[in-house]
Write a structure and sequence with these properties.
249 residues; mainly alpha; two-stranded antiparallel ribbon; 6 strands; 53% helix; 6% strand; globular; disordered N terminus; metal-binding; Calbindin; repeat; Calbindin_Ca-bind; EF-hand-dom_pair
Length: 249
């Protein structure tokens, strides 16, 4: 069911108090996919919202109005998207801080601090009780096997669609064998990590081979975001695998 307007939702993703155009279309599409994946039907309020705004790219809805038709989980994602998280680079740097063992996951204990750090980067302060609530919502939304761990790609849904470069890389992930071969090919000096220049060469080749998924004009953004996972400019195999490998190594 819908919930009353949260006091913290005041700006649109673009900062104008509204969600419109492609931004609104992307949100509607993701909302439908998330409900379907969870085995849930759209509520009557949500169905009316989709019917009204889902077919036209010139729709426009106020964030306050939108918040009233969304249940807690979707409201939570909307809230984070409204916080103007600066970039996917900030997100990746925060991820690296908490995935200190390079496992590709962060556990429930670390999640609360992770969310707090993200909001601080966006210059937002939040009550501890509300942060605890958000942590529980995140686990409920994404921890499908109830192991208390979340993956990078799952947490990246907190980013506005235009900042979530990981969506682009979902379609170009390699199997473990292919990934390892590629890593060894671009690790030209064989020192066990890829530097910025080596990553640049790898990404250029990926963009050329996958023009439908990747836009070479965004190469600098891709590189900057991925290098945020590096250790002092050294991008190790495990970190790059989070982006490019479809299987565990």
């Amino acid at each position: 069911m819908g919930i009353s307007r949260p006091h913290y939702i005041s700006e649109g993703v673009s900062g104008n108090g509204f969600m419109d155009g492609k931004e609104l279309q992307n949100f509607i599409q993701e909302l439908q996919q998330a409900r379907k994946k969870a085995g849930l039907d759209l509520t009557p309020e949500m169905k009316a919202f989709v019917d009204q705004y889902g077919k036209s790219t010139d729709g426009k809805i106020g964030i306050v109005e939108l918040a009233q038709v969304l249940p807690t989980e979707e409201n939570f994602l909307l809230f984070f998207r409204c916080q103007q998280l600066k970039s996917s680079e900030d997100f990746m740097q925060t991820w690296r801080k908490y995935d200190s063992d390079h496992s590709g996951f962060i556990d429930s204990e670390e999640l609360k601090s992770f969310l707090k750090d993200l909001l601080q980067k966006a210059n937002k302060q939040i009550e501890d009780s509300k942060l605890t609530e958000y942590t529980e919502i995140m686990l409920r939304m994404f921890d499908a096997n109830n192991d208390g761990k979340l993956e990078l790609t799952e947490l990246a849904r907190l980013l506005p669609v235009q900042e979530n470069f990981l969506i682009k890389f979902q379609g170009v992930k390699m199997c473990a064998k292919e990934f390892n071969n590629a890593f060894e090919m671009y690790d030209q000096d064989g020192n066990g990590y890829i530097d910025e220049n080596e990553l640049d060469a790898l990404l250029k080749d990926l963009c050329e081979k996958n023009k439908k998924e990747l836009d070479i004009t965004n190469l600098a953004t891709y590189k900057k975001s991925i290098m945020a996972l590096s250790d002092g400019g050294k991008l190790y195999r495990a970190e790059l695998a989070l982006i490019l490998c479809a299987e565990e190594n």
